[in-house]
Amino acid sequence: MKYNSLDKYKRISKRLSDNQKSVLNVIDCSKQINRLVEDNQEFYLLGVKNTEYINEEVLEKLDNKNFIKHTIDKMSLGGRAVDIDLINPITGKIMTGSSSGTAINVLNGFNDIGIGTDGGGSVLAPAMALNLYGIISPLFYRDEAFKKSSTDGIKFVPAIGFISKDIELIKKAVGIFVNQEKVEKIKVLIPEVSNIYLETKQDIGKTVIDNLVVNDKISLTKSEFPNIFLEREGLITFLENELNTYDAIITYEGPIDYYGFGDSVFGLFNDIAKADQQKAGKGLIRVANMANKSALVVPSNDFSSGYVIISNSTKKGVQTLFELEALLSNKLNNKLYDRYFTL
Q1: Is there a single domain that holds both residue 167 and residue 25?
Q2: Residues 282-311: pLDDT tens digits?
Q3: Residue 201: which domain range?
């Protein structure tokens, strides 16, 4: 994929001259882009979630590598897991939050990559909802002063994460913050077949095993998982315990916010609301950051669905995410999707 087209930037600017609900502000990058094009350098349009957690220190590191701040993106009110002001352009349902505008602006081609924050799935879930790549890790940036409690009472520090259509661009952004280390062997844990099912009746364990290439580097273990769509507390403990033994856990999740309304503000009302919330296709993506782990979501050819890879938050752990992504099949390959959502 090429990232040095002045004509593309002009097309995007024209589209953004219309009112876009997902965009709060457009930054004029024309002078910087003209200079980079003249120097025959690549540049990457960056959407930034409207939150103070993403500070100038982080953005300056990105800018130094030609990730140019292009839009300030709308986020869901109060950081909710759904954004009732925006519509998912793929499903027509209410958009997933809280990095909702950031994900939409990447999907629509306004930005090459977006940066958001994730407390309990707020980068990973919007990315998956739009069949995009999403990654989080506390290694990118962490500020304990922003420690907070989720709507269901779990304390956490937000992680920074990236959303893009292009895994290579994700790697480039991650490389600014983490120097990955070589990985020799990877111990992977996945669910047993006939253990957990999506609302689509897909068997999560079977989907993973059918689409993961196991080479000499991989040691694969299948185990009975807890129901990953239930309360978060037990899932945090599950991740912490299992990642003491294994290098990575892989699941398959979705369709995000299609069969249910995956928001704990709604889900805490009564049993009917909770049951509906648990149909929203959000499993371990809700707890990866709360367990202080790193995670990558990989889009598949199923709408608003994909693989979830979770690792320990070390340099080797981050590299493990990318190593396993390369071994997955049935990743998004949809010509109509590409044509419709490309400027």
Answers
A1: yes
A2: 999 999 999 999 999 999 999 999 999 999
A3: 186-331
Q: How far apart are the first and last CA of the chain?
A: 13
* Same domain membership, residue 93 and residue 145: yes
Give 150-183 pLDDT, tens digit per residue: 877 889 999 999 999 999 999 999 999 999 888 9
Task: Output the CA–CA distances (angstroms, integers) from residue 160 to 37, 52, 172, 190, 301, in the order listed.
Answer: 29, 12, 15, 26, 26
Tell which residue, 157, 158, 153, 160, has the closest CA to residue 264.
153
Shared domain check, 222 and 139: no
In this prediction the pTM is 0.97
How many domains is the chain partitioned into structurally?
A: 2
Distance CA 99, CA 73 (A): 8
The tens digit of pLDDT for each residue in 309-337 reads: 999 999 999 999 999 999 999 999 999 99
Q: Are residues 236 and 274 in the same domain?
A: yes
